[in-house]
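The data are passed on as follows:
___
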Amino acid sequence: MTIKNRKLNRKKVIGLLAIILIILFIIMICYLISKKNNKYKDLSILLNNEFIKTINQVVIDENDNIYFSKDDIQKNFDGTIYYNEVEEELITTYNTHVALLKLDEKYASINDENIELKGTLKQIDGKIYMPLTDLQVVYDLEIRYSKKSNRIIIDDINSKKVEAKILEITNVKNKRGLLNRTLEKLIIGDKVVILEDSGRYKKVRTPLGNIGYVKSKILSEEKIIREDIKNENQELNAYKNYSNISGIYDNIQVDTSKLNVVIPTFFYIDKNSKVLDRTMNTTATYSVYKTWTDNNNLQILPSLENSSTVSTNLLSYSQRTSVINSLKELILKNNYIGINIKFNSIDDINSFNRFILELVPRFKTAGLKVAVTLANNVDKSKIENIVDYIVEE
């Protein structure tokens, strides 16, 4: 090969390399521009520090009210949510809250108190949507929407939360060590939520909802914002053979590590959805019985029975609410520890289940226990994680 041809080939190679480098440079610039423009394009949802996918589109209105579809509320917060299409009303329960919302109305009943909403229960594209921003108090949530990251950040307020401040400018990395990428830049004074201690590094959540790692040494002393809230029940020890108030009993020994109770039937529901207190008919006998239970460190967990059908007196939300509130008033007045639901017959299991679902939160707020004596057609699996105790016959 001549020198001239060699030089020509070298020029071709150099030219080709230059073209390749230019193409790569253009591709890189386009990628960076695209990344910058699309970095936070799609709405993301962080629930208890885990990204979730929704069944239906999440709606955020011009006032930053966040709407979840009923299907997504049911999936993530209330598996027993109920929407009455005829009445156009929705009933949702969670922990210590019961809420009733009506379609397109600006007020909701939350624990029997009328609350003005920023949003409304609405129908969008044939689906029911709920104003989650308003309902965060119902589901024990802390909700924040970051416009910059287009991210909804949702925390359970019953779970522990620990924060720290950034002490020097730093980058949050997607993983520890080398070969990582920057998720977000933080400045001095920014607060992060501490998720995990990994020695030299700590896993954190940033104000924009990014989850990554920073060096432990650039964080201030941690501050506990809230602790875990756990509801633990003592084992129930029911003295059924001492639940007849007309009996005469000797002193007994109880297990102090357990919740020792007698479960006499004191209350009934009549056909007009009224709660009747039958103890008033045997005042002297009741007084003797009450003294005996006090002397033997026994708590009274009275039973509520039905003298009419469930479909007659517990069919509607208003009927159930009336019974629950009357019952709660009687329990508190007499200093009982709660109620045992012992229905002789249940002709409408759906109304019965709704009754239990709507009763438990109202009793929880008053520090009262709820037990259910299983009837033949009660599905134990549907209520055992809702009530405090199941009483077997």
